[in-house]
Amino acid sequence: MQAEALDGGFADGPIDAARAFRAAMSAMARPGRIERLAGAAPPAPLSRAAGALILTLCDPETPVHLAGAHDAAALRDWITFHTGAPLVGAEDAMFAIGDWDALQPLDAYRVGTSDYPDRAATLIVEMPALAAQGARLTGPGIKESAHLSLPETAAFRRNAAQFPLGLDFFLTCGDQVAALPRSTCVEDI
Amino acid sequence: MTEYNFAYLDEQTKRMIRRAILKGLAVPGYQVPFASREMPMPYGWGTGGVQVSAATLVPEDRFKVIDQGADDTTNAVSIRKFFERTAGVETTEHTAEASVIQTRHRIPETPLSEDQILVYQVPIPEPLRFLEPRETETRKMHSLEEYGLMHVKLYEDISQHGAIATSYAYPVKVEGRYVMDPSPIPKFDNPKLSDCPAIQLFGAGREQRIYALPPYTRVVSLDFEDYPFEASKADHACDLCGAGDSYLDEVITDDQGGRIFVCSDTDYCRGRREAGHVGTQAQDAPMMTEARA
Protein backbone atom coordinates (compact mmCIF):
# COMPACT_ATOMS: atom_id res chain seq x y z
CA MET A 1 0.00 0.00 0.00
CA GLN A 2 1.26 3.44 -0.98
CA ALA A 3 1.10 6.29 1.51
CA GLU A 4 -1.28 8.29 -0.72
CA ALA A 5 -4.01 5.76 0.02
CA LEU A 6 -4.14 7.26 3.50
CA ASP A 7 -4.99 10.76 2.20
CA GLY A 8 -8.12 12.13 0.65
CA GLY A 9 -10.66 11.09 3.28
CA PHE A 10 -13.11 13.43 4.97
CA ALA A 11 -11.39 16.10 7.06
CA ASP A 12 -14.17 15.92 9.66
CA GLY A 13 -15.84 12.52 9.21
CA PRO A 14 -19.21 12.95 10.95
CA ILE A 15 -19.90 16.45 9.61
CA ASP A 16 -18.63 15.89 6.06
CA ALA A 17 -20.54 12.62 5.83
CA ALA A 18 -23.71 14.31 7.07
CA ARG A 19 -23.45 17.02 4.41
CA ALA A 20 -22.57 14.50 1.71
CA PHE A 21 -25.54 12.33 2.65
CA ARG A 22 -27.91 15.29 2.47
CA ALA A 23 -26.70 16.00 -1.06
CA ALA A 24 -27.01 12.30 -2.00
CA MET A 25 -30.47 12.04 -0.42
CA SER A 26 -31.64 15.19 -2.14
CA ALA A 27 -30.43 13.77 -5.45
CA MET A 28 -32.13 10.39 -4.88
CA ALA A 29 -35.37 12.05 -3.73
CA ARG A 30 -35.45 14.33 -6.77
CA PRO A 31 -34.26 12.31 -9.78
CA GLY A 32 -32.49 14.47 -12.31
CA ARG A 33 -31.51 17.22 -9.89
CA ILE A 34 -27.77 17.85 -9.87
CA GLU A 35 -26.26 18.34 -6.42
CA ARG A 36 -22.73 19.25 -5.35
CA LEU A 37 -20.88 16.62 -3.38
CA ALA A 38 -17.52 17.60 -1.92
CA GLY A 39 -15.10 16.72 0.85
CA ALA A 40 -13.31 13.70 -0.64
CA ALA A 41 -10.10 13.66 -2.68
CA PRO A 42 -9.85 10.09 -3.99
CA PRO A 43 -7.13 8.83 -6.34
CA ALA A 44 -7.78 8.82 -10.09
CA PRO A 45 -9.88 7.74 -11.87
CA LEU A 46 -12.52 8.17 -9.15
CA SER A 47 -14.38 11.50 -9.18
CA ARG A 48 -14.64 13.59 -6.01
CA ALA A 49 -18.40 13.08 -5.91
CA ALA A 50 -18.12 9.29 -6.23
CA GLY A 51 -15.38 9.35 -3.57
CA ALA A 52 -17.66 11.22 -1.19
CA LEU A 53 -20.51 8.76 -1.87
CA ILE A 54 -18.23 5.84 -1.03
CA LEU A 55 -16.97 7.44 2.17
CA THR A 56 -20.55 8.24 3.20
CA LEU A 57 -22.27 4.96 2.36
CA CYS A 58 -19.70 2.15 2.33
CA ASP A 59 -18.22 0.20 5.23
CA PRO A 60 -17.29 -3.42 6.01
CA GLU A 61 -20.96 -4.42 5.56
CA THR A 62 -21.18 -3.28 1.94
CA PRO A 63 -19.38 -5.31 -0.75
CA VAL A 64 -18.10 -2.98 -3.49
CA HIS A 65 -17.42 -3.85 -7.12
CA LEU A 66 -14.87 -1.82 -9.09
CA ALA A 67 -15.50 -2.04 -12.82
CA GLY A 68 -13.03 -1.54 -15.66
CA ALA A 69 -10.42 1.20 -15.23
CA HIS A 70 -11.68 1.83 -11.69
CA ASP A 71 -10.28 -1.54 -10.64
CA ALA A 72 -6.87 0.07 -10.05
CA ALA A 73 -4.47 -0.69 -7.20
CA ALA A 74 -4.45 2.89 -5.88
CA LEU A 75 -8.23 2.99 -5.72
CA ARG A 76 -8.54 -0.47 -4.19
CA ASP A 77 -6.14 0.57 -1.44
CA TRP A 78 -7.96 3.86 -0.88
CA ILE A 79 -11.37 2.23 -0.51
CA THR A 80 -10.00 -0.54 1.69
CA PHE A 81 -8.23 1.90 4.00
CA HIS A 82 -11.03 4.44 4.32
CA THR A 83 -14.10 2.18 4.39
CA GLY A 84 -12.99 -1.42 4.97
CA ALA A 85 -15.48 -2.50 2.29
CA PRO A 86 -14.75 -5.91 0.75
CA LEU A 87 -14.06 -5.75 -2.99
CA VAL A 88 -16.12 -8.31 -4.89
CA GLY A 89 -17.48 -9.29 -8.29
CA ALA A 90 -20.59 -7.71 -9.80
CA GLU A 91 -22.96 -10.46 -8.63
CA ASP A 92 -22.19 -9.91 -4.91
CA ALA A 93 -21.93 -6.12 -4.93
CA MET A 94 -24.11 -3.70 -3.00
CA PHE A 95 -22.29 -0.83 -4.66
CA ALA A 96 -20.56 -0.84 -8.04
CA ILE A 97 -18.43 1.93 -9.46
CA GLY A 98 -17.23 2.51 -12.99
CA ASP A 99 -18.03 4.22 -16.25
CA TRP A 100 -21.14 3.14 -18.11
CA ASP A 101 -19.49 0.70 -20.52
CA ALA A 102 -17.39 -0.93 -17.82
CA LEU A 103 -20.44 -1.54 -15.61
CA GLN A 104 -22.17 -3.63 -18.31
CA PRO A 105 -23.87 -6.05 -18.36
CA LEU A 106 -26.43 -4.69 -15.89
CA ASP A 107 -28.13 -8.04 -15.36
CA ALA A 108 -25.05 -9.19 -13.44
CA TYR A 109 -26.11 -7.10 -10.42
CA ARG A 110 -28.62 -7.93 -7.74
CA VAL A 111 -32.02 -6.31 -8.26
CA GLY A 112 -33.54 -7.42 -4.95
CA THR A 113 -36.27 -9.99 -4.38
CA SER A 114 -40.01 -9.48 -4.42
CA ASP A 115 -39.99 -9.91 -0.61
CA TYR A 116 -37.00 -7.60 -0.14
CA PRO A 117 -36.68 -5.20 -3.08
CA ASP A 118 -34.23 -3.14 -1.01
CA ARG A 119 -31.59 -5.84 -1.42
CA ALA A 120 -30.57 -4.38 -4.75
CA ALA A 121 -27.28 -2.93 -5.90
CA THR A 122 -26.60 0.79 -6.21
CA LEU A 123 -24.49 1.67 -9.24
CA ILE A 124 -22.27 4.74 -9.24
CA VAL A 125 -21.81 5.68 -12.87
CA GLU A 126 -18.87 7.96 -13.64
CA MET A 127 -19.89 10.33 -16.42
CA PRO A 128 -17.76 12.50 -18.75
CA ALA A 129 -20.34 15.28 -18.27
CA LEU A 130 -23.59 15.78 -16.37
CA ALA A 131 -26.26 18.25 -17.44
CA ALA A 132 -29.96 18.84 -16.90
CA GLN A 133 -30.81 18.11 -20.52
CA GLY A 134 -31.49 15.04 -22.60
CA ALA A 135 -33.72 12.17 -21.55
CA ARG A 136 -37.07 13.11 -20.03
CA LEU A 137 -37.67 11.82 -16.49
CA THR A 138 -41.02 11.46 -14.74
CA GLY A 139 -42.11 9.71 -11.57
CA PRO A 140 -41.88 10.08 -7.78
CA GLY A 141 -39.70 13.02 -6.75
CA ILE A 142 -40.32 14.95 -9.97
CA LYS A 143 -42.91 17.71 -10.10
CA GLU A 144 -43.77 17.46 -13.78
CA SER A 145 -40.72 16.30 -15.63
CA ALA A 146 -36.95 16.63 -15.40
CA HIS A 147 -34.15 16.16 -17.89
CA LEU A 148 -30.81 14.50 -17.42
CA SER A 149 -27.94 13.60 -19.74
CA LEU A 150 -27.99 9.78 -19.56
CA PRO A 151 -25.57 7.45 -21.36
CA GLU A 152 -28.60 5.71 -22.90
CA THR A 153 -32.30 5.27 -22.16
CA ALA A 154 -33.19 1.68 -23.10
CA ALA A 155 -31.30 0.15 -20.18
CA PHE A 156 -32.99 2.51 -17.70
CA ARG A 157 -36.40 1.74 -19.16
CA ARG A 158 -35.78 -1.98 -18.78
CA ASN A 159 -34.66 -1.35 -15.21
CA ALA A 160 -37.78 0.70 -14.37
CA ALA A 161 -39.99 -2.01 -15.90
CA GLN A 162 -38.87 -4.38 -13.14
CA PHE A 163 -40.21 -2.09 -10.39
CA PRO A 164 -40.32 -2.66 -7.43
CA LEU A 165 -37.16 -4.61 -8.22
CA GLY A 166 -34.29 -2.96 -10.00
CA LEU A 167 -31.04 -1.07 -9.69
CA ASP A 168 -30.61 2.46 -8.39
CA PHE A 169 -28.08 4.76 -9.97
CA PHE A 170 -25.96 7.67 -8.90
CA LEU A 171 -24.35 9.54 -11.79
CA THR A 172 -21.22 11.45 -10.90
CA CYS A 173 -18.92 13.87 -12.69
CA GLY A 174 -16.28 15.92 -10.86
CA ASP A 175 -18.08 17.15 -7.74
CA GLN A 176 -21.56 16.80 -9.25
CA VAL A 177 -24.00 14.04 -8.49
CA ALA A 178 -27.44 13.16 -9.79
CA ALA A 179 -29.52 10.06 -9.17
CA LEU A 180 -31.88 7.82 -11.04
CA PRO A 181 -33.81 5.39 -8.84
CA ARG A 182 -35.71 2.45 -10.31
CA SER A 183 -38.99 4.31 -9.80
CA THR A 184 -38.17 6.89 -12.49
CA CYS A 185 -39.72 6.56 -15.92
CA VAL A 186 -37.19 7.46 -18.65
CA GLU A 187 -38.12 8.58 -22.17
CA ASP A 188 -36.16 9.74 -25.19
CA ILE A 189 -36.99 13.21 -26.39
CA MET B 1 -16.45 12.44 28.40
CA THR B 2 -18.93 15.21 27.72
CA GLU B 3 -18.81 15.27 23.92
CA TYR B 4 -21.11 13.23 21.73
CA ASN B 5 -20.43 12.17 18.18
CA PHE B 6 -22.31 14.50 15.84
CA ALA B 7 -26.04 13.74 16.21
CA TYR B 8 -25.39 11.09 18.88
CA LEU B 9 -25.20 7.95 16.72
CA ASP B 10 -21.88 6.39 15.70
CA GLU B 11 -20.88 6.64 12.05
CA GLN B 12 -21.42 2.98 11.19
CA THR B 13 -25.00 3.17 12.45
CA LYS B 14 -25.65 6.36 10.49
CA ARG B 15 -24.30 4.77 7.30
CA MET B 16 -26.64 1.81 7.78
CA ILE B 17 -29.63 4.12 8.34
CA ARG B 18 -28.63 6.33 5.40
CA ARG B 19 -28.48 3.34 3.07
CA ALA B 20 -31.96 2.33 4.23
CA ILE B 21 -33.30 5.86 3.62
CA LEU B 22 -31.91 5.86 0.06
CA LYS B 23 -33.53 2.49 -0.73
CA GLY B 24 -36.76 3.73 0.86
CA LEU B 25 -36.75 6.74 -1.46
CA ALA B 26 -36.04 4.50 -4.45
CA VAL B 27 -39.03 2.26 -3.66
CA PRO B 28 -41.63 4.70 -2.26
CA GLY B 29 -43.89 3.16 0.37
CA TYR B 30 -41.86 -0.04 0.82
CA GLN B 31 -40.70 -0.66 4.39
CA VAL B 32 -36.93 -1.14 4.47
CA PRO B 33 -35.69 -3.21 7.44
CA PHE B 34 -32.90 -1.57 9.42
CA ALA B 35 -30.91 -2.45 12.52
CA SER B 36 -32.58 -0.04 14.93
CA ARG B 37 -30.45 0.89 17.92
CA GLU B 38 -31.21 1.39 21.57
CA MET B 39 -31.72 5.10 22.07
CA PRO B 40 -31.62 7.04 25.32
CA MET B 41 -35.40 7.06 25.43
CA PRO B 42 -38.01 4.31 25.59
CA TYR B 43 -39.56 2.70 22.53
CA GLY B 44 -42.74 4.53 21.71
CA TRP B 45 -41.13 7.90 22.36
CA GLY B 46 -39.94 8.37 18.82
CA THR B 47 -36.79 6.26 18.64
CA GLY B 48 -37.36 5.59 14.93
CA GLY B 49 -37.88 9.24 14.10
CA VAL B 50 -34.89 10.21 16.22
CA GLN B 51 -32.61 7.78 14.39
CA VAL B 52 -33.79 9.01 10.99
CA SER B 53 -33.33 12.62 12.11
CA ALA B 54 -29.85 11.82 13.45
CA ALA B 55 -28.83 10.34 10.10
CA THR B 56 -30.31 13.27 8.19
CA LEU B 57 -29.31 16.37 10.17
CA VAL B 58 -26.45 18.65 9.14
CA PRO B 59 -25.04 21.38 11.41
CA GLU B 60 -26.72 24.10 9.31
CA ASP B 61 -30.21 22.72 9.94
CA ARG B 62 -32.95 24.38 11.90
CA PHE B 63 -34.87 21.65 13.67
CA LYS B 64 -38.48 21.59 14.82
CA VAL B 65 -40.26 18.82 16.70
CA ILE B 66 -44.00 18.49 17.12
CA ASP B 67 -45.96 16.03 19.19
CA GLN B 68 -49.58 15.84 17.99
CA GLY B 69 -49.09 19.30 16.52
CA ALA B 70 -47.66 20.88 19.67
CA ASP B 71 -44.13 22.19 20.09
CA ASP B 72 -44.36 22.37 23.85
CA THR B 73 -45.17 18.85 25.02
CA THR B 74 -42.69 16.66 26.89
CA ASN B 75 -41.79 14.47 23.93
CA ALA B 76 -41.22 17.40 21.57
CA VAL B 77 -39.23 19.41 24.11
CA SER B 78 -36.94 16.54 25.04
CA ILE B 79 -36.20 15.50 21.44
CA ARG B 80 -35.48 19.14 20.54
CA LYS B 81 -33.10 19.42 23.49
CA PHE B 82 -31.50 16.10 22.59
CA PHE B 83 -30.44 17.37 19.17
CA GLU B 84 -29.54 20.83 20.47
CA ARG B 85 -27.06 19.08 22.70
CA THR B 86 -25.79 16.25 20.49
CA ALA B 87 -25.86 17.91 17.04
CA GLY B 88 -25.59 21.57 17.99
CA VAL B 89 -28.39 22.48 15.59
CA GLU B 90 -30.58 25.54 15.90
CA THR B 91 -34.16 24.81 16.81
CA THR B 92 -37.36 26.65 16.09
CA GLU B 93 -41.09 26.39 16.69
CA HIS B 94 -41.98 28.09 13.41
CA THR B 95 -42.87 25.62 10.67
CA ALA B 96 -41.78 27.93 7.86
CA GLU B 97 -38.31 28.44 9.40
CA ALA B 98 -37.53 24.76 9.99
CA SER B 99 -35.45 22.72 7.56
CA VAL B 100 -36.06 19.38 9.31
CA ILE B 101 -39.30 18.73 11.19
CA GLN B 102 -39.73 15.61 13.28
CA THR B 103 -43.36 14.87 13.93
CA ARG B 104 -45.47 12.60 16.02
CA HIS B 105 -48.93 12.08 14.53
CA ARG B 106 -49.51 15.34 12.65
CA ILE B 107 -48.54 17.11 9.45
CA PRO B 108 -48.17 20.87 10.06
CA GLU B 109 -51.02 23.08 8.80
CA THR B 110 -48.57 25.48 7.13
CA PRO B 111 -47.79 24.02 3.69
CA LEU B 112 -44.29 22.56 3.48
CA SER B 113 -41.71 23.70 0.94
CA GLU B 114 -39.13 21.95 -1.26
CA ASP B 115 -36.33 22.71 1.17
CA GLN B 116 -37.93 20.88 4.07
CA ILE B 117 -37.75 17.32 5.35
CA LEU B 118 -40.56 15.85 7.43
CA VAL B 119 -39.57 12.93 9.68
CA TYR B 120 -42.45 10.86 11.09
CA GLN B 121 -42.31 8.80 14.26
CA VAL B 122 -44.05 5.53 13.47
CA PRO B 123 -45.27 3.02 16.08
CA ILE B 124 -46.55 0.21 13.78
CA PRO B 125 -45.26 0.60 10.21
CA GLU B 126 -47.12 -2.40 8.80
CA PRO B 127 -50.62 -1.36 7.66
CA LEU B 128 -51.69 -5.02 7.50
CA ARG B 129 -50.36 -5.97 10.94
CA PHE B 130 -53.70 -5.87 12.80
CA LEU B 131 -55.27 -7.93 10.04
CA GLU B 132 -52.45 -10.47 9.73
CA PRO B 133 -50.01 -10.81 12.63
CA ARG B 134 -47.37 -12.88 10.78
CA GLU B 135 -44.56 -10.88 9.23
CA THR B 136 -43.89 -13.69 6.71
CA GLU B 137 -47.48 -13.38 5.47
CA THR B 138 -47.67 -9.58 5.31
CA ARG B 139 -44.37 -9.52 3.44
CA LYS B 140 -45.82 -11.97 0.91
CA MET B 141 -48.97 -9.86 0.63
CA HIS B 142 -46.91 -6.77 -0.19
CA SER B 143 -44.80 -8.65 -2.71
CA LEU B 144 -47.90 -10.03 -4.46
CA GLU B 145 -49.72 -6.70 -4.15
CA GLU B 146 -52.47 -8.62 -2.39
CA TYR B 147 -54.35 -5.95 -0.47
CA GLY B 148 -57.85 -7.44 -0.53
CA LEU B 149 -57.81 -7.88 3.23
CA MET B 150 -57.47 -4.13 3.73
CA HIS B 151 -60.48 -3.46 1.57
CA VAL B 152 -62.44 -6.08 3.51
CA LYS B 153 -61.54 -4.23 6.69
CA LEU B 154 -62.77 -0.91 5.28
CA TYR B 155 -65.90 -2.66 3.98
CA GLU B 156 -66.61 -4.08 7.44
CA ASP B 157 -66.32 -0.55 8.80
CA ILE B 158 -69.07 0.50 6.41
CA SER B 159 -71.28 -2.47 7.17
CA GLN B 160 -71.02 -1.91 10.93
CA HIS B 161 -70.92 1.87 11.17
CA GLY B 162 -72.39 3.05 7.89
CA ALA B 163 -69.15 4.79 7.00
CA ILE B 164 -65.43 4.11 7.04
CA ALA B 165 -64.79 4.55 10.76
CA THR B 166 -61.00 4.51 10.54
CA SER B 167 -60.10 8.04 11.59
CA TYR B 168 -56.31 7.91 12.01
CA ALA B 169 -53.49 5.79 10.53
CA TYR B 170 -55.77 5.63 7.50
CA PRO B 171 -54.13 3.37 4.89
CA VAL B 172 -52.84 4.87 1.65
CA LYS B 173 -51.54 3.48 -1.63
CA VAL B 174 -48.29 4.94 -2.90
CA GLU B 175 -47.85 5.45 -6.65
CA GLY B 176 -50.36 2.68 -7.29
CA ARG B 177 -48.12 0.01 -5.75
CA TYR B 178 -47.47 -0.27 -2.00
CA VAL B 179 -50.12 0.12 0.67
CA MET B 180 -48.55 2.18 3.44
CA ASP B 181 -49.37 3.22 6.98
CA PRO B 182 -49.01 7.01 7.13
CA SER B 183 -48.35 6.69 10.91
CA PRO B 184 -51.24 7.62 13.24
CA ILE B 185 -51.88 11.02 11.69
CA PRO B 186 -55.58 11.96 11.61
CA LYS B 187 -57.11 11.19 8.24
CA PHE B 188 -57.63 14.95 7.98
CA ASP B 189 -53.88 15.09 7.17
CA ASN B 190 -53.91 12.34 4.52
CA PRO B 191 -54.40 14.65 1.53
CA LYS B 192 -51.24 16.55 2.55
CA LEU B 193 -49.16 13.38 2.02
CA SER B 194 -49.73 13.45 -1.70
CA ASP B 195 -47.85 15.73 -4.08
CA CYS B 196 -46.00 17.26 -1.12
CA PRO B 197 -42.95 19.36 -2.11
CA ALA B 198 -40.98 18.17 0.96
CA ILE B 199 -39.17 14.86 1.45
CA GLN B 200 -41.14 12.64 3.87
CA LEU B 201 -39.24 10.01 5.88
CA PHE B 202 -40.80 7.50 8.26
CA GLY B 203 -38.91 5.78 11.07
CA ALA B 204 -40.20 2.94 13.26
CA GLY B 205 -37.62 2.18 15.96
CA ARG B 206 -39.11 -0.78 17.78
CA GLU B 207 -40.34 -2.37 14.55
CA GLN B 208 -37.05 -1.61 12.78
CA ARG B 209 -38.44 -0.20 9.56
CA ILE B 210 -37.75 2.92 7.51
CA TYR B 211 -39.85 4.06 4.58
CA ALA B 212 -40.09 7.21 2.55
CA LEU B 213 -42.04 9.37 0.14
CA PRO B 214 -40.01 11.47 -2.31
CA PRO B 215 -41.46 14.92 -3.10
CA TYR B 216 -44.48 15.01 -5.42
CA THR B 217 -45.26 11.33 -4.87
CA ARG B 218 -48.85 10.31 -5.63
CA VAL B 219 -50.47 9.05 -2.44
CA VAL B 220 -54.11 7.91 -2.49
CA SER B 221 -56.23 7.11 0.56
CA LEU B 222 -57.98 3.77 0.06
CA ASP B 223 -61.74 4.00 -0.40
CA PHE B 224 -64.70 2.81 -2.47
CA GLU B 225 -66.43 4.55 -5.37
CA ASP B 226 -69.68 4.81 -3.41
CA TYR B 227 -67.95 5.56 -0.09
CA PRO B 228 -65.20 7.98 -1.08
CA PHE B 229 -62.48 9.01 1.33
CA GLU B 230 -63.33 12.04 3.42
CA ALA B 231 -60.81 14.11 5.38
CA SER B 232 -62.76 14.86 8.54
CA LYS B 233 -62.29 17.13 11.55
CA ALA B 234 -64.40 18.42 14.43
CA ASP B 235 -67.18 20.55 12.94
CA HIS B 236 -66.14 23.71 14.71
CA ALA B 237 -63.74 26.65 14.41
CA CYS B 238 -60.74 27.11 16.69
CA ASP B 239 -61.91 28.92 19.84
CA LEU B 240 -58.61 30.78 20.17
CA CYS B 241 -57.74 31.86 16.63
CA GLY B 242 -61.00 31.27 14.78
CA ALA B 243 -59.43 29.05 12.11
CA GLY B 244 -62.04 26.99 10.33
CA ASP B 245 -59.57 24.96 8.27
CA SER B 246 -57.26 23.46 10.88
CA TYR B 247 -57.39 20.16 12.76
CA LEU B 248 -58.81 20.67 16.27
CA ASP B 249 -58.22 19.23 19.72
CA GLU B 250 -61.12 19.15 22.12
CA VAL B 251 -60.01 20.49 25.51
CA ILE B 252 -62.02 19.97 28.70
CA THR B 253 -61.94 23.22 30.65
CA ASP B 254 -63.81 22.39 33.88
CA ASP B 255 -65.82 19.62 35.53
CA GLN B 256 -69.14 21.11 34.41
CA GLY B 257 -68.89 19.77 30.88
CA GLY B 258 -67.20 22.93 29.64
CA ARG B 259 -64.97 22.41 26.62
CA ILE B 260 -63.29 24.33 23.87
CA PHE B 261 -61.84 23.39 20.50
CA VAL B 262 -58.33 24.60 19.75
CA CYS B 263 -55.90 24.09 16.87
CA SER B 264 -53.77 20.99 17.38
CA ASP B 265 -50.95 22.80 15.52
CA THR B 266 -49.78 25.26 18.18
CA ASP B 267 -47.48 27.17 15.82
CA TYR B 268 -50.29 27.69 13.31
CA CYS B 269 -52.65 28.87 16.05
CA ARG B 270 -50.14 31.26 17.57
CA GLY B 271 -49.26 32.66 14.15
CA ARG B 272 -52.91 33.40 13.46
CA ARG B 273 -53.45 35.01 16.86
CA GLU B 274 -50.38 37.18 16.39
CA ALA B 275 -51.79 38.23 13.03
CA GLY B 276 -54.93 39.42 14.84
CA HIS B 277 -57.34 36.54 14.25
CA VAL B 278 -59.66 36.04 17.21
CA GLY B 279 -61.79 33.07 18.21
CA THR B 280 -64.88 33.03 20.42
CA GLN B 281 -62.94 32.25 23.61
CA ALA B 282 -60.02 34.52 22.82
CA GLN B 283 -60.10 36.31 26.18
CA ASP B 284 -58.89 33.03 27.66
CA ALA B 285 -56.00 32.89 25.24
CA PRO B 286 -53.24 34.41 27.39
CA MET B 287 -54.14 32.09 30.24
CA MET B 288 -54.15 29.07 27.94
CA THR B 289 -50.75 29.94 26.54
CA GLU B 290 -49.34 30.31 30.00
CA ALA B 291 -50.81 27.05 31.19
CA ARG B 292 -49.34 25.16 28.25
CA ALA B 293 -45.87 26.70 28.43
From TrEMBL, chain A:
GO terms for biological process: organic phosphonate metabolic process. It comes from the Bacteria. This is Alpha-D-ribose 1-methylphosphonate 5-triphosphate synthase subunit PhnH. It comes from Roseovarius litoreus.
UniProtKB/TrEMBL annotation, chain B:
The keyword Ion transport does not apply. GO terms for biological process: organic phosphonate catabolic process. It comes from Roseovarius litoreus. Catalyzes the breakage of the C-P bond in alpha-D-ribose 1-methylphosphonate 5-phosphate (PRPn) forming alpha-D-ribose. Signal peptide: none annotated. Belongs to the PhnJ family. GO terms for molecular function: 4 iron, 4 sulfur cluster binding; alpha-D-ribose 1-methylphosphonate 5-phosphate C-P-lyase activity; metal ion binding. The keyword Iron applies. Its EC number is 4.7.1.1. This is Alpha-D-ribose 1-methylphosphonate 5-phosphate C-P lyase. InterPro entries: PhnJ (IPR010306). Keywords: 4Fe-4S, Iron, Iron-sulfur, Lyase, Metal-binding, S-adenosyl-L-methionine. It catalyses: alpha-D-ribose 1-methylphosphonate 5-phosphate + AH2 + S-adenosyl-L-methionine = alpha-D-ribose 1,2-cyclic phosphate 5-phosphate + methane + 5'-deoxyadenosine + L-methionine + A + H(+).
